[in-house]
Amino acid sequence: MADRMADRTLTPTHPLADRRGLLATVADETAGAVRLELEAPVAAVDLRLDPRGTGPAAVAAAIGAALPSAPDTWTAHPTGAALRLGPDEWLLTSTAASAEDWEFHVDEVAAAHGGMAVDVSAQRTSLRVRGAARELLSFGCALDLRPASFPAGRCAQTLLGQSGVLLVAHDVDDLQILVRPSFAAYVADLLVDAAGELVPQPVP
Amino acid sequence: MQLIACPWCGPREEIEFSYGGQAHVAYPEHPASLTDEQWAHFVFFRDNPKGPFAERWSHSAGCRRWFTAVRDTRTHRFVSPPEMTS
Ligand SMILES: [Zn+2]
C-alpha cells in the first residue's frame, strides 16, 4: 500500500493527444495557411471578486500586473494571463506555478478582500490557431472576428459550432481556443473539417 | 437570427441565451402561510401581455450572467437596453 501511494504515476495528458497527428496535417494540406497546435496544460484559477472593492488591486500586486478592467479583455502578467470573464469573475493562468500553489497564492489574497479563487486547471484545454485563424473560426463562430472588432487583447466566451469556447486574441493571425476537455475532440474535428475550405484549389 | 444585447458582452446571437420567464416575480414573504391556490399562482401563473414584457434572460453560452430585458411580444424586439441585476 505504501509503495502504491509513493508511486505517482498520474501524469496529465492533453485531452487531444491522440489528435496531435491529425491536427499537424492541416498545415500541410492548407499549404501553410493554417497551423493547429495543442498547448501544454497550465495552472488556472477562477477568481470571484468585487470589482469595486480593494481586491482587484491586491490581486494585481500579487500576480505582478493589473487585472483587465474592460469586459471581454485579457492582459498578460509575468507568468501567464488574466482574462475577464464577467463583472466579478476572472480566469488567471500561470505557466510557472503548480495548480495547487497557484490556487493557494491567488486565493490567499482574494480571501482577504472578500473574494475567492478556485483551481480550474482541468476545466479547459487549449488549442492554438495560427495563420488564417480568423477565417477558419468564422466557419463555426458568429462573432465578428475581424481584427478591427476582435483585436489582440480581446477575449470572448461564445459558441464555436455547438460547443462553448473561450476565444483569446493574441494577434491578427494568432488565436487561442480554450474549451472543455469533453468538447475538445469535437472542436478539433470541426476545425480540421473547416480547414478543408482553405485548401488551395488547382486553377483549371 | 436576432442579436440580443447582453449588458456585459454586448450584442450576441440569440442562441447564446436562455429564457428565464417573467421578471419581477417576488418570492412570497411567508411561503408557509400561503394556501395551495396562492402557491400555485406564485409558481405557475404568469402574465401573457400583447406588447412590452419584462423578462429574465441568461447569457448562458457567454458570461453566464442573468439580466432583465423588456421585449415586445408582438415584434420580438427588445425595446429597452437590458439591465444587469443579480
Ligand atoms: Zn454576456
Summarize the structure.
The complex is a heterodimer of chains A (204) and B (86). Chain A has 6 helices and 10 strands.
Tell me what the structure shows.
The complex is a heterodimer of chains A (204) and B (86). Chain A is α+β, with helices and mostly antiparallel strands and 204 residues long. Chain A is built from six helices and ten strands; from the N terminus they run ααββαβββαββαβββα. In chain B, β4 and β5 form a beta hairpin. The mean pLDDT of chain B is 92. In chain B, the strands form two sheets. A four-stranded antiparallel sheet of chain B has the order 3-4-5-6, with no helix packed on it. Chain B has a two-stranded antiparallel ribbon with strand order 1-2. Classes of the chains: A alpha+beta (204), B mainly beta (86). At the A-B interface, β8 of A face β2 of B. The structure holds zinc ion. The site of zinc ion has 7 residues of chain B, from loops.
Distance between the termini of chain B: 27 Å
Structural class of chain A: alpha+beta
What's the CATH topology label of the largest domain in chain A? Gyrase A, domain 2
Question: Compounds present?
Answer: zinc ion
By CATH reckoning, the class of the largest domain in chain A would read Alpha Beta
Distance between the termini of chain A: 69 Å
Radius of gyration of chain A: 19 Å
What pattern of helices and strands is seen along the backbone of chain A? HHEEHEEEHEEHEEEH
**Total helical elements of chain B:** 1
Pfam families (chain B): SoxD
Protein name (chain B): Sarcosine oxidase subunit delta
Organism (chain A): Actinomycetospora lemnae
Protein name (chain A): Sarcosine oxidase subunit gamma family protein
